[in-house]
Design a protein that fits this description.
By secondary structure, the chain is of the alpha/beta class. The protein folds into 2 domains: 124 residues, 3-Layer(aba) Sandwich (Oxidized Rhodanese, domain 1), CATH 3.40.250; 114 residues, Rhodanese-like domain (Oxidized Rhodanese, domain 1, 3-Layer(aba) Sandwich). It has 10 helices and 9 strands. The strands form 2 sheets. The chain has a 5-stranded parallel sheet with strand order 1-5-4-2-3. A 4-stranded parallel sheet has the order 7-6-8-9, covered by helices on one side. The longest helix is centred in the middle third of the chain and has 12 residues.
Length: 281
């Protein structure tokens, strides 16, 4: 597995390699088509675009969260359309902090495609370094993506309720903003609060103001405190819809604490069933 992050300088040195695929993942939660509109105006040279709602999520039922995982056949078809094959090194980026790019990073790892990195600092870092961007829409030659979802990557709602809540050897990590975690506000989902017993590690606390990730040793100290002696495999992350939860998994991997699981449905799925417990403080 490569380093989960790549710097602007390291990526610049690799531009033009035949097996390199750059994927623009920019998105706006309140303006879902913002990223798609920005992409043709300017993007990294050779980058294709992946839309969170249409390419990196599946159909919503009203009970499976706001960004359910795509069906395997659909995800394989999308990756093949984007020109991602077994030997392709994928570099995902977004506007800055890696939240949206982490979704693609996590999905590809989930499907056994470990050759994927996130551009540290995203497009903002690229532009700040004086690197060129290009306009227009890029397509890559289609290929066949053959990945399969791997075991041990996800935890489902029923498992959270029956095996994780209150288990002393496990830890549930909430990646949302502190005020949402505490239940003081809830701007998106119909119920405020968090999964009982969850601890809070906001995804924004993983990065500097510039959007670049904190040093691995800093991240390791923070997550080690949350783990409190547990192994990373005994941690599951979640957020509002399974996107910024992947950012916490990415941060843990950067810290050398790989193996954390993700609850993909996250809070938006959790509160769709009124029988699931909710905690506020």
């Amino acid at each position: 597995m490569p380093n989960p992050l790549i710097t602007v300088d390291a990526l610049t040195a690799r531009l033009g390699e035949a097996n390199l695929a750059l994927v623009d993942c920019r998105f706006g939660l309140l303006q879902p088509d913002w990223g798609a509109a920005q992409y043709p105006l300017g993007h990294l040279p050779g980058a294709v675009y992946a839309h969170l709602d249409y390419d990196l999520s599946g159909a919503k039922t009203g009970r499976n969260g706001r960004h359910p995982l795509p069906e395997p056949a659909d995800f394989r078809a999308t990756m093949g359309r984007l020109g991602i094959g077994p030997e392709t090194l994928v570099v995902a980026y977004d506007q800055a902090d890696g939240m949206w790019a982490s979704r693609l990073w996590w999905l590809l790892n989930y499907y056994g495609h470990a050759e994927v990195q996130v551009l540290d600092g995203g497009l903002a870092a690229w532009v700040a370094a004086g690197q060129l961007i290009e306009a227009g829409v890029v397509t890559r030659p289609a290929t066949t993506f053959v990945g399969e979802p791997g075991p041990g990557w996800v935890v489902l709602a029923d498992e959270i309720q029956s095996r994780w809540i209150g288990a002393p050897d496990r830890v549930i990590i909430d990646a949302r903003a502190p005020e949402r975690y505490r239940g003081e506000v809830e701007p998106i989902d119909p119920v405020a609060g968090h999964i009982p017993g969850a601890v809070n590690q906001p995804y924004k606390a993983n990065v500097e103001a510039s959007g670049r990730f904190l040093a691995p040793e800093v991240l390791r100290a923070r997550y080690a405190e949350l783990l409190a002696g547990r192994s990373p495999e005994q941690a599951v992350t979640y957020c509002g819809s399974g996107v910024s939860g992947a950012h916490d998994v990415l941060a843990m991997t950067i810290a050398g604490l790989s193996g954390a699981k993700l609850y993909p449905g996250s809070w938006s799925e959790w509160v769709s069933d009124g029988g699931r417990p909710v905690e506020r403080f």
